[in-house]
Amino acid sequence: MKKTFEVSDRLFELYHRVHRLVNESMTEEGVSLARSKFLFFLSKLGPCRSTDIACALNFAPRTVTEAIDGLERDRLVMRKPDPEDRRAKIVSITETGRVVLEAAEHPRKQLLEEIFSALDDEELDALFDIVGKLVDRTDEIRKRKDEAEEAAQIAIAR
């Protein structure tokens, strides 16, 4: 059991170090890793409501609103009225946002290539498979927890 915790601690350590390095390199190009997630989402899926962004990225609606406010101030996104719901706004990436996102992607990719170059192709394939298994297991656990929570809510409602 001790080895499990040692490995998980190393994974968290790796994640935080990579996250910090990637964030620094992207910020030097004009957009943080966090802000780039919003821009990337909008560039791939196109204009959408902030509630759609919150749901897709698993962020609180207030967090998304604050992020969009900042991105809009920097002219990286723009809001327009939703033609189907006058209370809502449609958010889309601007041309400036696309340019900034593209500029920040290059150092991110370069840095990740440099980090993962420590592994040969066989090790990289093995790591990919191992991480995939762990992702699948966390999805199974999440599904069980969600089902148990839903069952508990139904029991309470009765």
UniProtKB/TrEMBL annotation:
Residues 8-136 form the HTH marR-type domain. One of its GO terms (molecular function) is DNA-binding transcription factor activity. It comes from the Bacteria. GO terms for biological process: response to stress. PROSITE patterns: HTH_MARR_2 (PS50995). This is MarR family transcriptional regulator. It comes from Ensifer adhaerens.
